[in-house]
Amino acid sequence: MPGSPRSPASARCAGADVYTCGPWCQGPALGQALNILDAAALQAAGHNSADYLHWIAEARKLAFADREAFYGDPNHVDVPIAGLLDPVYGAARRAQVDPARAWPEMPPAGTPPGAAPRGTAPGAGAAWREGPPCDLPRDTSYICVVDRWGNTVSATPSDVSNDTPVVPGTGLCPSSRGSQSWTTPGHPSRLAPGKRPRLTPNPAMAVAPGRFVLPFGTPGGDVQTQAMLQTLLNVLLFGMDPQDAVEHPRIATYSFPDSFEPHAYHPGRLCIEARIARATGEALAARGHQVTWWPERIWRAGAVCAIHADLGTGILTAGADPRRPGYALGW
After folding, report:
1. In 102, 105, 239, 331, which residue has its Cα 20 to 30 A from 93's Cα atom?
2. What is the mean pLDDT of residues 116-140?
3. Backbone phi, then psi, for 167, in 5-degree steps?
4. Worst-scoring range by mean pLDDT, 77-81, 140-144, 159-163, 283-287?
5. How far apart are CA 31 and CA 137, in angstroms?
6. Of 321, 299, 317, whose CA–CA distance to 308 is shortest?
7. Which of 152, 139, 140 is nearest to 316 (CA)?
8. Confidence class of residue 2 from pLDDT cuts 50, 70 and 90?
9. Separation of alpha carbons 100 and 97, rounded Å
10. Residue range 20-47: average pLDDT?
11. 189 with 199: CB under 8 angstroms?
């Protein structure tokens, strides 16, 4: 049945199980990126070094290539989710990263176990559009809660209302999430009766049994899983508390078709927040990234919020991203 409950998608990183929503949204792309990346190598590279950020960007491109080729409403599309999240498949995709050179565009999709070869992802033929990325609607919000008993919620309530008519006499707006469907033949999220679009909202939760629970998420369209990945690694690999983790500067690639109509595509583009060292950006440009500099703490880089609930001490530590209005509250 449409909307029927399904098990969350999951991947493992640094002793934690990271749970996301399924392939009717972009959630599993977070797990795929975690499987592509080598945690020890990232730690050795150094936080936000050129090597580190190059791997982050290239892992995102590979995960997004698979997103375009395979993700869609599982009530209508046979998504090989187990194969996509297989750590062995992640390692195979890792081997497609050149440490010295960026993919100039979105890479070809992979062939996860249980899937037929796809080659070029269906969305890769989207028009190359100049100018800034899609002007994101700002209706999306994120909330996470951990109560005194340890019950945990991670949610990204979102529906765009600034570009839809109000139904007379009701005050209600019909959803415009259909703008995240596709008309491209062969695309797994191609528009069809009763078929959900592949959505961008994707709350997540990291669980280390007996140690901690970490709900986290953000608004931000296609940047959501990118900002979430960098924040999660800040916590798991570099020991940051949630507030420090969400405030650190970030990057975002746009080398894939945007989820929103008209599905803008900016091959090679890598946006970098200005607090990252200029020399680091120059080193990334030398590897072939089409670097664009963002100002400090720009709202386009996401607004991640998170709570770290220590299961041993019972202490809760929260972080609210200053890039958009947000608060961390406890009582």
Report:
1. 239
2. 59
3. -70, 120
4. 159-163
5. 25
6. 317
7. 152
8. very low
9. 9
10. 97
11. no
Q: Is 234 helix (H, G, I), strand (E, B) or coil?
A: helix
CA distance 132 to 264: 10
Among left, alpha and beta (phi > 0; psi -120 to 50; other), residue 29 is alpha
User: Which residue reads 């970098």 in tokens?
Assistant: 272
Helix runs in 22-142, H state only: 28-36, 39-45, 50-70, 81-84, 87-94
Name 31's Cβ contacts closer than 8 Å, sequence gap at least 6. Answer: 9, 10, 11, 18, 20, 85
- The average confidence (pLDDT) of the chain is 92
Alpha-carbon Rg for the chain, nearest whole angstrom, is 19
Q: How many CB atoms lie within 10 A of CB 19?
A: 20
Instruction: Kindly report the length of the chain.
Output: 331
pTM above threshold 0.90: yes
pLDDT digits (tens, 9 = 90+) for 79-98: 999 999 999 999 999 999 99
